[in-house]
Amino acid sequence: MAFDNILVVCVGNICRSPIAAALLMKQYPQKHIDSAGLSAVIGNPVDLNSQEVMTPYDIDMSAHIAKQIDEELVLTADLILTMSTSQTKWIESRWPHCRGKTFRVGHWIDKDIVDPYQHDKSVFKTVKKDIVESLEQWDDKIA
What we know:
Elements: E1 5-10, H1 16-27, E2 32-37, H2 48-54, H3 71-76, E3 79-82, H4 85-94, E4 102-104, H5 121-142
Parallel strand pairs: 1-2, 1-3, 3-4
């Protein structure tokens, strides 16, 4: 199955999911990549620490605007990547048709990505590293 429309989800849509979405967009420019939050800080920009840890990748996330996950986003997604088991379960309980296409980004290495919100930059660096390692495991499935 081709994953041409990928939705990345976290809680606020200002830290983790923008990082993962930006990395996916850079790697798969031909695919439609989007991100949203289960409890989004709607209208907010990306967290400054998230932007700063992406600087080595030459990725600018200044245009990002946080938005709430909704039925339209999950319906159009071929693959939904979450940051934790609880987020996957939340989506599947709200939209049962998403079972089978909703997985943790860290699924293949059995890892939840911790929420760095309101922590110092070192936590954001660890989160970015965990997301990068997790996405590497998806490469042969997404490509």
